[in-house]
Amino acid sequence: MAFLDLALGIILSVFFLTIPGFFVSNAVFSKEKTKKMSLLESGLFSVLFSITVIPFLILIQNSFFNVEIDYVTVTITGLAVMVASYAVSFQKSKNLLGGLFAFKSKA
After folding, report:
1. How many CB atoms are located within 10 Å of the residue 12 CB?
2. Phi, psi (5° rounding) for residue 30?
3. What global pTM score does this model have?
């Protein structure tokens, strides 16, 4: 049982250190900026956003709502971050909110 917990922890760590941050960086930066970023820069932003956003949200859940911190909480929070940031990215690309998320750079 300890081996399965360790294996699940490693798989979730690798998954949630890259994927949610990738979606958040796509939601934060414009499409032109994400195309200009190198693979290293994109990977660093993905890891940076993942190690800041998900633990912050889990801390908020634990502090205010007394949600236990376990694999299920981390998984649900990571999936929620991915879905929300993908929705914002999709709305930015389709301009569904009438320019609310359409940030244009002057450069």
Report:
1. 14
2. -70, 165
3. 0.75
Alpha helices in 1-107 (DSSP H): 2-28, 31-36, 39-65, 71-94
pLDDT at 48: 94
Contact 35, 101 (CB under 8 A): no
Q: Do residues 86 and 19 make contact, with C-beta atoms less than 8 angstroms apart? A: no
Location of structure tokens 């709305």:
91
Rama region for 95: left / alpha / beta (φ>0; ψ in -120 to 50; rest): left
- Structure confidence at residue 63 (pLDDT): 96
Burial readout 93-105 (b: 16 or more C-beta within 10 A, e: otherwise): eeeeeeeebeeee
Residue 10, classified by CB atoms within 10 Å of its CB into exposed (0-12), middle (13-18) or buried (19+), is exposed
Domain boundaries, the chain: 2-93
* Residue 29 token pair: 């930066």
